[in-house]
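Re-running arginine decarboxylase to confirm reproducibility after the cluster update. Everything else is unchanged from the original entry.
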Amino acid sequence: MSTIRVVWGSSTGPTEMAAYDGALADAGIENYNLVAVSSVIPAGVPVEAVGTAPDLGPAGERLTVVEGRARAAGPTSVSAGLGWVESIDEGPGLFYEAAGEADPDDVERRVREGIDAGADLREWDLGEASVHVEQARADSGAYAAAVVVAAYGESEPIV
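Result of re-run:
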C-alpha cells in the first residue's frame, strides 16, 4: 500500500450537504465515494499530512478513509479533528477522530485522550501523536462543515 495522506477542509453552504461537499472540495477529495474504516494504520505504511489531496484516481471511485467531520446549522462554529500515532518499529499505528460544535482545543484534547486510550489497549511501540483540527463558522441561515480525513492510498473502482 502507498502512503496514507491526511487532508482537511472547511466550508459553509446553504444546506448541510452543500457545506460538507465544500469541505471535501477544500480537502481535494470531493469526487470520490468515501468508505469509512475504523482506526488502524497498517504496518509499514507511512502517514503524511498534506492538507489538500493530490489526484488519487478517477472521479466516482471508492476511497478508503478515516474521517473526523462536523456539520451544523448556523449561527455556530464546528470543529473536526484527527490524530494519528505511528509505530516506532514499522508496526501498526492508530487514528482517532473527534468532532462537534466545540472549541478546537476541546476537540484536540478529546483526540489525544482517544489516542492514549487506544494505545493503552495495545502492546505496540508507538511514537509521538500528531493532531490536526479544522474549524468552520457559519452565520444564521447557513451551514458550517469541517473535515479532517486520512485517505488510504489511491482510489479503486467501485463497480
